[in-house]
Amino acid sequence: MAQVEATTERIIAADAETVFDALADYKEVRGKVLTGHFSEYEVREGGDGEGTLVHWKLQATSKRVRDCLLEVTEPTDGQLVEKDRNSSMVTTWTVTPAGEGSAKAVVSTVWDGAGGIGGFFERTFAPKGLGRIYGEVLQNLAAEVEK
User: Fold this and answer.
1) Distance of CA 97 to CAs 13, 43, 50, 102, Å?
2) Which end of the chain is more exposed for a tag (fewer CB within 10 A), N or C?
3) DSSP letter for each residue of the chain
4) Of the candidates 19, 41, 6, 36, which has an alpha carbon nearest to the alpha carbon of residue 128?
């Protein structure tokens, strides 16, 4: 099994603290900025960064739906890590200053890919698809915090 990784980033016209606080707000903001690829969104514990337990289903393709139950930690300032209890998937959100009044938001997801020919296609196509999905989430986040 090879590890698969998808990463995307965006410069957002808001300060890093505002962007991070919005990302960490699973009660109000996160559900609003998710795309149609996400369903059954539910905060099960917490709701503000570290200690949050959140559930959703991620439909990456018409046939591929992943049931995610994510534990949220904040290992360092400006970083949220979502570890899926149902799989090897880990998503890391990192927000850093990018000049006055701007922030750079980076989202990176890694998981253990399948073996064989299926794994080849997963390693080839999944990062692009997930990158597009998270690119849309970052676009929605920007629209939310740049108001």
Assistant:
1) 10, 28, 21, 6
2) C
3) --EEEEEEEEEESS-HHHHHHHHHBTTTHHHHH--TTEEEEEEEE--BSTT-EEEEEEE-SSS-EEEEEEEEE--STTEEEEEETTSS-EEEEEEEE-STT-EEEEEEEEEEPP-HHHHHHHHHHHHHHHHHHHHHHHHHHHHHHT-
4) 6
Type of residue found at 8: T
Question: Is the Cβ–Cβ distance between 69 and 55 less than 8 Å?
Answer: yes
* Contact present, 141 and 18 (Cβ < 8 Å): no
The pTM assigned to this predicted structure is: 0.90
CB atoms within 10 A of CB 2: 12
Diameter of the chain measured on Cα atoms: 48
3-state secondary structure of 101: coil
